[in-house]
Amino acid sequence: MHVLLLIVLHAALCCASSDNHQINVETLMDNVLVLRVPQSVGGWGDVTLTCGEAYQNQPVFWKRNGEDLNPALRGNEVKIPVRDLNGGNYTCHLGADGQFLNHTVIMIQLGTDNTPVILKEKSPEDGYIHCSAPNYKGSFHCTWTRTKHRSNAAVLLVKAERNLEKITCELSADGSGVHCLDANCPSKEEQHRIFLAVYIHSYSRLEMYTKAFYLREIATPAQPPNLKISDGKLFSWDYPNSWEKPDSYYRLDFQVKLVHHDNSCNSEDYLMHNTTEETKYEVTARSKKYIFCVRAKDKYTHGPWSHWSHCT
Questions:
Q1: Rounded distance, CA 269 to CA 262, Å?
Q2: Composition of the chain by helix, strand, coil, percent to 5
Q3: Potential cystine with 98: which of 26, 94, 194, 301 (Cβ 3.0-4.6 Å)?
Q4: How far apart are CA 288 and CA 261, in angstroms?
Q5: Is the peptide bond prior to 246 cis by the omega test (within 30 degrees of 0)?
């Protein structure tokens, strides 16, 4: 096994401008180095990289993103000039075209004063990440959307924890979401929020997006199933199978709405709307053609509404 890269010995700033900004250097994960800089344009100084102790007296050559550097960088220990967003994958080799020895990826993360460009903001309430849970068993799902011009951005790392205890997460195949399971959560009173951090990069630009929440804030019932009508005016439905049991303890509120037959359930142009705890509702509207809509949410936490179920 290769000797692990000794990432940063030091990072010193040698700005050409009169502003002596200091870059912040952090090892995010094995062989990944993050440089936090105040803005995207500027000369931020030199970062010293070491190929490995075992190669101290070897003819070590360096490449960036698989290409030779000009001027060439040689030696076990080299200084990488950091300017603008010119990070990349720096590899060290035995000889100019020799054996691969080690590597480090340099990412650039801009300061908090810079507007994020990789992900779309979903809403002022949700921010850039939307999270939901089908119940209180500890499973939750979070999603995000890349901006049009950063569609090739890739997730580098996802971290989730509650009160310093790590939560297991699995990234979706297309990199646009994550499914997590807090194994210590079921049926326990939540004392601490879940903290989620998503590191996503477009080329060498790295952005970190965070979200903190209780499960009770994101627990969203599935849409009410088995919606049906009897006697031409009595609608009935069931509790979602994925919701907590027993129903008598984990109560739901149901919002019912009548909308014109050519409108959607989200329409504000409705014939009637009401809220009930029952899983049935008798319609007294005179209109002969309408759509009946029903959705659910936790009665006690006042979390998000489910999607609508509807019947014409």
A1: 11
A2: 5, 45, 50
A3: 94
A4: 10
A5: yes
CA dist., res. 173 & res. 194, Å (int): 23
Distances (CA, A) of 265 to 123, 134, 293: 21, 21, 6
Element containing residue 176 per DSSP (H, E): none
Say whether 218 sits in a helix, a strand or coil: helix
CA distance 120 to 129: 9
- Cα–Cα distance for residue pair 108/34, rounded to 1 Å: 6
Structure tokens given for 58: 């070897």
In whole angstroms, what separates CA 258 from the centre of its chain?
Answer: 36
Torsion sign across C-alpha atoms 15, 115, 152, 208: positive
Strands 194-202 and 60-64: unpaired
CA-nearest of 279, 285, 108 to 207 is: 108
**Among 20, 155, 6, residue whose Cα is nearest residue 76:** 6
Spatial distance between the Cα atoms of 89 and 5, rounded to a whole number of angstroms: 13
Express each pLDDT in 252-263 by its tens digit. 999 999 998 889
CB 15 within 8 A of CB 42: yes
Closest Cα to residue 194, out of 221, 213, 166? 213
**Tens digit of each residue's pLDDT (9 = 90 or more) over 161-203:** 999 999 999 999 999 999 999 988 655 678 899 999 999 999 9
